[in-house]
Fold:
Amino acid sequence: MSKINKLVVGVAAVAFAGYILSLTRQHRREKILRLSADEGYETAHDVLFPKKLRKARHLRYGPVLPH
Structure:
C-alpha cells in the first residue's frame, strides 16, 4: 500500500472509532435519562447511580420550560 492509501485508511478508521464512541455515549446518556424518568424526578441522582461520581451537566429533572 502506498503512503496515501495508508493515510486514508487510518483517517477513516479514526473517524469510524469516533462515531462509534459518540453513539455509545449517547446511548448511555439516554439510558440514564430513561431510568431517572421512570423513577420520578424527585429521586436523587446519587441514589439511582451510586457509582457515578459526577452527574451530567444538562441532566434535568421535573418539568423543564423550553428555552
Observations:
- Helices lie at 3-39, 45-48.
- The chain has two helices and no strands.
